[in-house]
Amino acid sequence: MIYDVVILGGGPAGLAAAVEAKNDGAEQVLILERDRELGGILNQCIHNGFGLHTFNEELTGPEYAERYIQKVIDLNIPYMLDTMVLDMHDNGDLKSIHVINEENGYMIIETKAVVLTMGCRERTSGAIGIPGYRPSGVFTAGTAQRFINMEGYMPGKEVVILGSGDIGLIMARRMTLEGAHVQAVCELMPYSNGLVRNIVQCLDDYDIPLKLSHTITFIHGKDRLEGVTVAKVDEKLKVIPGTEEYIPCDTLLLSVGLIPENEITRNAGVVMDNRTNGAIVGELRQTSMPGVFACGNVVHVHDLVDFVSEEAVLAGKGAAKYIKGDLDTEITFTTTNGDGIGYVVPQQVAMKNVEEKVTFYMRVRQVFQDKVVNAYIGDQLIATKKEKKLLPAEMVNFKISKDVLAQYPAGEIRFVVEEAK
Amino acid sequence: MKKDMTCIVCPIGCQMTIEEKADGTYEVTGNTCKRGPKYAINEMTNPTRVIPTTVVIKNAMLPRLPVKTAEPIPKGQIFDAMAVINQVVVEAPVKTGDVVIKDLLGLGIDVVATRTMDKC
């Protein structure tokens, strides 16, 4: 059997891409999921705040996931659980997906199109190299989240959190609600990497101090964590001697960044972007490999699942167009990040595939007040987005209409942060 | 009474100060739009939160069922609510929206399941 579209991952991106591909005419769609159920990371994100953009209501993670799982069931889209994708090969018109699971053993699945939706994983203590011992009691915030919310284990009682990413903030509240004492959230940067809403509702509500420009310089304890040394850092992120403070604790949670999970993508030879650590994609999330699409956190780390779903719709649409031979491959524009901008997705635009507009997602490098993001082609200013405040934690969502883009034959679209005129 | 707070209505996060006047009205400063004072006054007079948490579930694939208060509850009663919710044990199967606790703390607000869990 040859599939039309095989989707690698049954999290929010995979579910929405599957639904869209099926609705757009792909008949044989298959979702491959390595966990024992669909829904991905949303299953452990039991807090509310999901779906404000997509459904205009505030849902919890499992509720948001269930809405898409129900669509997958209603459309009779098959899925394989407990199934690990090992490898993907491009054989021209067909791709072969090498897969393993307990029921079928090793399989090679052939498909016309693939959507990569493997998501991302957390940076661990090994990745940031904190000096000291390696006792038990050091967890990534997401691991602790899964333990508490799904498995029913409490990781500890006296907690310090390093990194103010959203999962760290959410876990500060979650551990407090379950009776732990969260002593502090330490953030290396002079600003938080989490959403303002989470700082207020997860830290301020429970009087948990947020120590900006602070890091952990030593982990104490040989078998179980006994404490951490926390110190202030200067503008160059160097520890200021004399500012060290010992905080006794039995649990350290790390919320220090997420890495798109792209081993399969890289091995297959898809061209990557070292700014996002994801594939270079076009307006319908097509990658450099014809027939292979990517969306969600595997392309770039999002802060809201609503935008993952939005992006997945593009990839599902693209995959359906591709199998029908309707996907145009002529690249009209490339995008680039100028002053103040860290990255831009998509990196390419094929104008013939554009319906009404292109939404460019980007992140600023630092906090900006009362600035604008300008889009240029050459010296020509083509669009402006005004923002009172630009934060690295909040993805900028810059829409440019087809009519505006169509005035230019080709070129590079450059996004920069500038003074408001 | 005077209180400093960060507005969460939009990502700008204005640092606002709210002060209760002698006549019982409130003065809000630091906001940059009219939604700020509304949020600040609500936070001052009746702050409420939805509580998402878990309860023990038996005979399901996992030992915990995620639940939430169907409506926001007063902020001051969060820990009382947690104490009640943590006593509950349910049996699979459960469907999203099923009532796990009726009329939590006499508030007229139910605690409901936020996912479906089959019996296994």
UniProtKB/TrEMBL annotation, chain A:
InterPro entries: FAD/NAD-bd_sf (IPR036188), FAD/NAD-binding_dom (IPR023753), Metab_Enz_Cyan_OpOx_G3PDH (IPR051691). Residues 3-301 form the FAD/NAD(P)-binding domain. Coiled coil: none annotated. The keyword Oxidoreductase applies. It holds the Pfam family Pyr_redox_2. PANTHER family: ANAEROBIC GLYCEROL-3-PHOSPHATE DEHYDROGENASE SUBUNIT B. This is FAD-dependent oxidoreductase.
TrEMBL record, chain B:
SUPFAM superfamilies: CPE0013-like (SSF160148). Gene3D superfamilies: CPE0013-like (3.10.530.10). InterPro entries: CPE0013-like_sf, DUF1667. Coiled coil: none annotated. It comes from the Bacteria. This is DUF1667 domain-containing protein. It comes from Acetobacterium malicum.
